[in-house]
Design a protein that fits this description.
- With about 325 residues, the chain is of the alpha/beta class.
- A hairpin with a 2-residue loop joins strand 3 and strand 4.
């Protein structure tokens, strides 16, 4: 089982952390994947390609076919953009489960698809915050989750690590060093134990948070995930839950009367999260205040029909 760390040379927020990581001990050249060079350190394989980070689909499958090594997980290094231009270090799962089959994905991926979320997302968010604090990046940089969005298509547990939000910060060496250190420590490359291995969980910590609702940076879910021991799967922001207003008495509206791809989005995200946490119990965590009454009622009804339990913050 190997871990792929993927960077692109055309993105300073991607190649910066990759270069900082490769400057650490133990790396040596590995095989090429078509024209993509790789570097090897223990069970970690770092790839550097020259395309958009969201454009290289099925890197896990392609690596397995080329090397006969089974890919256990993928970690992408990337830039983050935001209207606020605020400096940020972000972690998120990937997928576009809310898009219809005939929609054109704006940033890679496949409509109606979500990759299994990396079980490391929660533990690494907490580790990233500690690293950022120790490197005096806080409060200048915000350390945050993002909702599930964009590609590329993968089948392995996946997460993105990003530096935002403008060219000034994408090139920051201290931010690149923090991300590199997160990967180094998080994967146990320094000799200490890896952080966020689901298989090493304790039996009383098997609840997994599936975030439903809220803004892109998932503040209500963040409040829970920042607590020690919390595991997190997909995070469906409000824009990933398109719900068509039934335009009638919303109090008694049936779930089947509310159009949109919100049910597809929840189902796909739940199943992908389940696949990433074998033996775990995936609980929906709702940002209640982000929904109108009829929306919340419909979502709760759908979750009940799908036998998806709803968890409170203390359940995780």
């Amino acid at each position: 089982m190997v871990t792929l760390v993927v960077a692109t040379t055309i993105d300073p927020a991607s190649i910066g952390p990759a270069s900082a990581l490769l400057a650490m001990p133990g790396w040596h050249p590995g095989p090429f994947l078509q024209d993509i060079p790789s570097f090897v350190n223990g069970e970690v394989r770092l790839l550097k390609h020259d395309n958009s980070i969201v454009a290289e689909d099925h890197l896990d499958k392609r690596w397995e076919e080329a090397t006969n090594e089974v890919v256990d997980e993928i970690i992408f290094l990337s830039k983050h953009t935001a209207v606020s231009n605020r400096p940020a270090l972000t972690v998120h799962p990937i997928g576009i489960p809310h898009l219809r089959e005939d929609d054109v994905p704006p940033q890679g991926g496949k409509p109606g698809w979500a990759a299994p979320p990396s079980p490391r997302i929660g533990p690494w968010l907490r580790l990233l915050k500690k690293i950022a604090e120790s490197h005096n990046l806080i409060p200048e940089f915000e350390v945050t989750l993002e909702g599930t969005h964009h590609g590329p298509v993968t089948n392995s547990p996946t997460m993105f690590l990003e530096i935002g939000s403008t060219a000034e910060y994408w090139k920051r060496q201290d931010a690149a060093q923090a991300i590199a250190l997160l990967v180094w420590e998080g994967l146990g490359l320094g000799g200490c134990g890896a952080v966020g291995n689901w298989n090493s969980r304790s039996s009383d910590r098997n609840k997994v948070l599936l975030g439903i609702g809220g803004g892109h940076y998932a503040p209500r879910h963040m409040d829970v995930v920042l607590k020690d021991g919390v595991w997190v799967g997909h995070l469906l922001s409000g824009y990933s839950l398109p719900m068509e207003d039934p335009g009638q008495s919303k109090v008694d509206t049936n779930v089947k009367d509310i159009g949109g791809t919100w049910k597809q989005s929840i189902r796909v995200a739940f199943e992908a999260t389940q696949s990433a946490f074998p033996g775990g119990e995936v609980l929906a965590h709702l940002d209640h205040k982000s929904f109108k009454g009829w929306q919340k009622s419909a979502i709760m009804g759908f979750l009940a029909k799908q036998n998806i339990r709803v968890g409170k913050p203390e359940d995780f």
